[in-house]
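Appendix B. Chain record.
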Amino acid sequence: MSVYDSYDDCALLNLLKEGDLKAFAAIHKRYYGVLYIHAYKMFPDREEVKDLLQELFTCFWNNREEIEPDINLKGYLYTGARNRIFNIFKHQKVKSAYISSFKSFIDNNSPSADKQFRMKELIAIIDAEVSSLPPQMRLIFEMSRNANLSHNEIAHELNISPLTVRKQVNNSLKILRIKLATHFFIIFLLFFYSIGSFRLF
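C-alpha cells predicted for this chain:
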C-alpha cells in the first residue's frame, strides 16, 4: 500500500497541482472503479465507458493547475463522467434525427439526372479532400468509413490506442466539415449511411 493511499482528497489535489504523478495515480486508483460502475449503469458500453474515463482523467491531469484543492473531488469527477455521457446521448440523438429526416427525403424525392451528376461531383470533391488528409489520419478514416472497422479493430491493426483512433476520426471529420461546408458534408454522409455503404459514426 502506497503512502499516497492514506492521503485525503485535499492533500492529493495539492500534490497534483505541483505535478505529482503519484498523487494522480492515487486519485485514479481511488475513483476509477466507482466511476466505471456509475458510467456503465448510465451507458452500458464497456469500450465507450473506458474511452470516456480515459479522456476524463487525461483532461483532469491537463487542467490540474486550475482545480481548487477544496473541491468535492468525487462530485467533480462524477459530474465530468456524467457530462460526457450526456454528450454521447446528445450526439446520438442528433445523428438519429438527421438520418430520419434524410431517409424521408430519399423516400419522397427521386433523384434527377442533374442531381445524380451533382452527387458524383460532390463525391469527387470529398474523395480529393480525404486524400489530402495527413497520412495516418487518412488511413484511419478510410479503415473506419470504407472498411467498416471498429475503433478497437483499427487500434489492434495499427498497434495504437482506441482513444487515438477516435481522436483521429473526429479530427478528420472536423477538417472535412470545414473544407466542404457542413450541410453538404452531412447530406453526403447521410446518403451513404442510409444505403449501407458508408458509416457516419
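Further analysis of this model is presented in Appendix C.
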